[in-house]
Write a structure and sequence with these properties.
11 strands; 2 domains; alpha+beta; Ribosomal Protein L15, Chain: K, domain 2; Four Helix Bundle (Hemerythrin (Met), subunit A); 10 helices; 3-stranded antiparallel β-sheet; 4-stranded mixed β-sheet; globular
Length: 340
């Protein structure tokens, strides 16, 4: 069990010897089940909403070096609880120095956005191939545009220009991506804070869950998740975590969302309209179904190149952080993840 997911149907979570005890409620609010989870089987914990977790339980988890992420039932990331095992201040000093070097910052950001746009292009190619898409001209046109923009990104003269290229590419990408959503849950335009329809609700939820994993992985390597390169550094903005999400949004989140919707794993009844925010969100009772599929997607093995070792997306997250470390240590020609 790499991930322990605690949701609002969890009535109580305690620790006993080497196990986490998870009690679940039934529809009447009474304890329906009790599960003993060995602590050594857990790699990360995600707490959604406000399940009752005792302080000794939280302390035991953190002492074991297991990161805990907190997220609201609406999919808003709150924060993380991690151990202090990695206190590599030298890495953070190098990160701050690199951030202040505009030339190095731009070079890293160019390569990052190049990888994002090429991955977006590859996602569209895969989707078209799976559907045996007949609209060849439309597919080729969008992919050609994304490839051209990716090459422009490598020669961008400034971060501002790079953001402009990325914005144009995102518009073209989502315009084409909308063709692959099912008719009963269509996608027309990207909306967030709050998401206005089911497609956006599932996209935002998936982005938030992946973001949490990336943020805690950054902290585990002694880096500051708020000091990024492509995204603006401002109060409350986890810029580095958002930077490293860019190359994975399409390959992980978008492909997973389309798979869940097109295979009817999620239907309209899995979502609810919040009367206060007027946003659409994933129902709490449907979240467990999501995580079963998310874990499968994150742990599925694949090869980056022919005859290379098999990897999964959690290894890719770590590899991308090592790419950042390589840049900080003066390395050159380091590339970010490219979807095969």
């Amino acid at each position: 069990m790499p991930s322990l997911i605690l949701t609002c149907d969890t009535s109580k979570v305690t620790v006993e010897s080497k196990h986490i005890i998870v009690e679940k409620r039934d529809e009447n609010g009474k304890t329906a089940s009790k599960t003993h989870v060995p602590i050594f089987d857990i790699e990360r914990v995600l707490i959604i909403g406000r399940p009752y977790v005792t302080i000794p339980t939280l302390q035991r988890i953190v002492k074991k070096g297991i990161p805990i992420n907190f997220i609201t039932t609406h999919g808003k990331w709150i924060g993380a609880m991690t151990s202090n095992d990695n206190m590599d201040a030298i890495r953070r000093i190098k990160q701050y120095e690199f951030y202040s070097d505009k030339k190095k910052n731009l070079e890293l950001s160019r390569n990052l956005i190049y990888a994002k746009l090429m991955n977006s292009r590859r996602v569209l190619q895969r989707l078209a191939a799976n559907r045996k898409e007949s609209q060849i001209d439309i597919q080729k046109s969008t992919c050609d545009i994304l490839e051209s923009l990716a090459n422009q990104a490598l020669n961008a003269s400034s971060i501002k220009a790079l953001r402009g290229i990325e914005g144009i590419a995102a518009s073209k990408y989502f315009e084409r991506l909308s063709d692959f959503f099912p008719k009963e849950i269509p996608f027309t335009v990207r909306t967030r804070r709050p998401p206005k329809d089911e497609a956006n609700a599932l996209l935002s939820w998936t982005y938030a869950i992946l973001y949490g994993e990336i943020e805690t992985a950054i902290r585990a390597q002694g880096l500051d998740p708020c000091i990024g390169f492509m995204h603006k550094t401002s109060h409350g903005t986890p810029a580095l975590a958002l930077d490293l999400m860019e190359t994975l949004r399409g390959p992980v989140c978008d492909l997973l969302v389309l798979s869940l919707l097109n295979h009817h794993t999620f239907k309209k009844e899995d979502f609810r309209l919040d009367s206060k925010s007027r946003g659409v969100f994933l129902k709490q009772e449907s979240q467990r179904k999501f995580f079963m599929n998310y874990e499968t997607a994150m742990s599925r093995k694949f090869c980056l190149t022919k005859n290379s070792d098999h990897v999964d997306f959690r290894q890719i997250i770590r590899k991308q952080i090592f790419t950042i470390l390589h840049y900080l240590e003066g390395g050159e020609d380091e590339s970010f993840f490219l979807l095969p």
